[in-house]
């Protein structure tokens, strides 16, 4: 090789190597003692074949890049010529990087041959970026999949699991505490994973708060990892509850691509995060069919909202003493032209998972306010209507403003729009819920605690959260057969008495039998909602119902005033029987009534 063509040769060799992996021209130019080395010792090799192997191995790590720009500079040295090359590369995912090479030529006889190849810092950085996540220093997806393939091939008789896990409500952590805190939490998790140094295990980060693991199934390693990560969450210094959800796929079919294995682990993760009770979901064959069904729901949700295929139904609430309607709860029903009636039990959990529930809730709130305004303008009876506020809704930074704007837009008394929140929302983020509900109450809104008793923080919630009305969870009534039978009866009795002492009205929801109604009356519960009285009905049916039921004319019907005198609450059947017996034995009946009044008063 003559000196005049060295720079042009280097330009061609570098371009063909990085874009095509071609080292044919390079082989004939290498000296027998040629060396190749990088910024760290593991890149050092010597000899023609080792150098060629080094180049081939390096090419596999950067395969698929394109040389966008290159600049070469030729320098004369004591031994010959050194060409410095700055090469700007782009990868398939459009990631840009520049690395620098030094190609050293030594003059032998009348020609120049390559005696050294120095891969400088830029090249090492480029290789690192292709294989590792910058924030966490864990494998990226491509490198994780490649390494898992290697491990599965290396241990053919060992059973492995692929785990995918994420941080529950990670976006909320970023919003509340800033992205710097979110990044700190991600690094905290990654440092734990790399510190345990289990072999043969592979760790990676897919994106955002999604992490990947591959590990042997022996020794209950899954349980140990989950427990350790849960303990790690507790140890992170943040005034917020941190939870993890896990999805697992046990590698049974090794001919599957690692990407497919990750997809199956993702199905398990979706099961866990959607369920909210289990922390780890394991893939099974039925999940694929469920995922297809859920995808149909996701594909149709936006179009249905635009076409008003979500319909607001109203379920009345009744005063147990008068059996008159005192209000209603707005519930959403989905009636799709092709899918037909879609159960809320199917679409609500999916919408809560993907965040669409906030858009749907706002739609229901708007429709409810429109209905109230229409009734006022038409001079029809108007009762308060409660709307559901999901735990996802509370993560909206302008939730209070949304309700203020709605009542102002439709010129409504805030007391007409009652807000139902679930106890689980409070448990997840109590301080934020307390602040928001206090602001809403200050604006005149009535706050109902739905599903009270379903969580583990009921008493703490009553102590800290200023709710106006409690709604008792149906599970308290599941075995109610009378005051003297069943532990659930005693618990419900105590809850109602406690609420009365706090001057908080109680609504029993899910009431379906006369026996439940009688029991609720005997313990002093004054309000009920359920299929025994009325199922959720369309707007016109609800209007007809309250039009014929209203006996007291008032613009905003209220729940019973606090500290009222106790009344005898007998079922209609018992009352009729007592009247018949009174004609036969008036003295004995009078004594019985006196005793029951005393017992009823004791409940207060």
Q: Tally the helices: what do you get?
A: 21
Query: What Rg do the Cα atoms give?
Result: 35 Å
The total tally of domains equals: 4
How many strands in all? Answer: 20
Nearest-integer average pLDDT: 82
Strand order of the biggest β-sheet: 12-13-15-16-17-18-19-20
Give the end-to-end Cα distance, rounded to a whole number of Å.
Answer: 105 Å
Shape: elongated
Uncertain segments are: 479-484, 551-557, 561-578, 599-604
**Residues in helices, as a percent range:** 40-55%
The biggest beta sheet is recorded as: 8 strands, mixed, barrel
Query: CATH first level of the largest domain: which class?
Result: Alpha Beta
The CATH homology group name of the largest domain: EAL domain
Oligomer: single chain
Q: Into which percentage range does the β-strand content fall? A: 15-25%
CATH architecture verdict of the largest domain: Alpha-Beta Barrel
CATH fold call of the largest domain: TIM Barrel
Category by helix and strand content: alpha/beta
Organism: Selenomonas ruminantium
Protein name: Diguanylate cyclase (GGDEF) domain-containing protein
InterPro entries: Cyclic-di-GMP_PDE-like, EAL_dom, EAL_sf, GGDEF_dom, Nucleotide_cyclase, Rev_trsase/Diguanyl_cyclase
Domain GGDEF: 158-282
């Amino acid at each position: 090789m003559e000196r005049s063509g060295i720079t042009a040769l280097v330009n061609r060799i570098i371009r063909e190597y990085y874009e095509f992996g071609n080292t044919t021209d390079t082989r004939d130019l290498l000296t027998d003692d040629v060396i190749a080395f990088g910024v760290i010792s593991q890149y050092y090799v010597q000899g023609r074949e080792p150098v060629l192997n080094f180049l081939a191995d390096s090419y596999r790590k950067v395969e698929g890049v394109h040389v966008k720009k290159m600049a070469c500079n030729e320098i004369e040295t004591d031994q010959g010529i050194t060409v410095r090359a700055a090469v700007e590369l782009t990868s398939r995912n459009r990631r840009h990087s520049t690395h620098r090479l030094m190609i050293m030529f030594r003059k032998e006889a009348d020609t120049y041959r390559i005696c050294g190849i120095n891969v400088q810092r830029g090249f090492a950085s480029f290789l690192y970026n292709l294989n590792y996540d910058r924030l966490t220093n864990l494998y990226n997806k491509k490198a994780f999949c490649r390494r898992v393939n290697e491990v599965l091939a290396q241990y053919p008789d060992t059973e492995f699991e692929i785990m995918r896990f994420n941080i529950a409500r990670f976006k909320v952590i970023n919003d509340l505490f800033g992205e710097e805190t979110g990044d700190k939490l991600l690094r905290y998790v990654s440092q734990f994973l790399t510190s345990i140094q289990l072999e043969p295990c592979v760790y990676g980060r897919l994106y955002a708060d999604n992490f990947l693991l591959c590990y042997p199934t022996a020794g209950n390693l899954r349980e140990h990892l989950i427990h350790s990560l849960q303990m790690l969450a507790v140890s992170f210094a943040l005034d917020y509850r941190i939870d993890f959800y896990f999805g697992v796929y046990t590698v049974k079919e090794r001919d599957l691509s690692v990407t497919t294995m990750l997809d199956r682990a993702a199905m398990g993760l979706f099961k866990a995060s959607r369920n909210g009770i289990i922390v780890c979901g394991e893939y099974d064959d039925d999940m694929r069919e469920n995922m297809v069904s859920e995808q149909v729901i996701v594909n149709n949700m936006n179009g249905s909202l635009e076409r008003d295929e979500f319909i607001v139904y109203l379920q009345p609430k009744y005063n147990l003493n008068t059996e008159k309607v005192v209000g209603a709860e707005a519930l959403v029903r989905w009636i799709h032209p092709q899918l037909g009636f879609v159960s809320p039990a199917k679409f609500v959990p999916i919408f809560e998972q993907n965040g669409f529930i906030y858009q749907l809730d706002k739609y229901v709130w708007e429709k409810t306010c429109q209905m109230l305004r229409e009734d006022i303008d038409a001079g029809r009876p108007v009762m308060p209507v409660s709307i559901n506020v999901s735990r996802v809704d509370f993560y909206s930074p302008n939730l209070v403003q949304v309700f203020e704007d709605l009542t102002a837009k439709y010129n409504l008394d805030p007391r007409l729009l009652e807000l139902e929140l679930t106890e689980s929302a409070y448990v997840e983020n109590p301080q934020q819920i307390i602040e928001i509900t206090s602001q809403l109450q200050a604006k005149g809104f009535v706050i109902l605690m739905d599903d009270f008793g379903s969580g583990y923080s009921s008493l703490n919630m009553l102590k800290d959260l200023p709710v106006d009305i409690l709604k008792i969870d149906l599970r308290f009534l599941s075995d109610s057969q009378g005051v003297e039978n069943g532990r659930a009866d005693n618990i419900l009795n105590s809850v109602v008495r406690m609420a009365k002492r706090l001057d908080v009205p109680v609504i029993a929801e899910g009431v379906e039998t006369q026996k439940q109604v009688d029991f609720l009356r005997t313990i002093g519960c004054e309000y009920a909602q359920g299929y025994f009285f009325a199922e959720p009905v369309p707007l016109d049916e609800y209007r007809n119902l309250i039009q014929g039921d209203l006996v007291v004319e008032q613009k905003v019907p209220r729940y019973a005033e606090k500290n009222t005198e106790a009344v005898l609450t007998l079922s209609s059947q018992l009352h009729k029987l007592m009247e018949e017996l009174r004609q036969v034995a008036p003295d004995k009946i009078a004594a019985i009534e006196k005793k029951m009044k005393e017992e009823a008063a004791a409940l207060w």
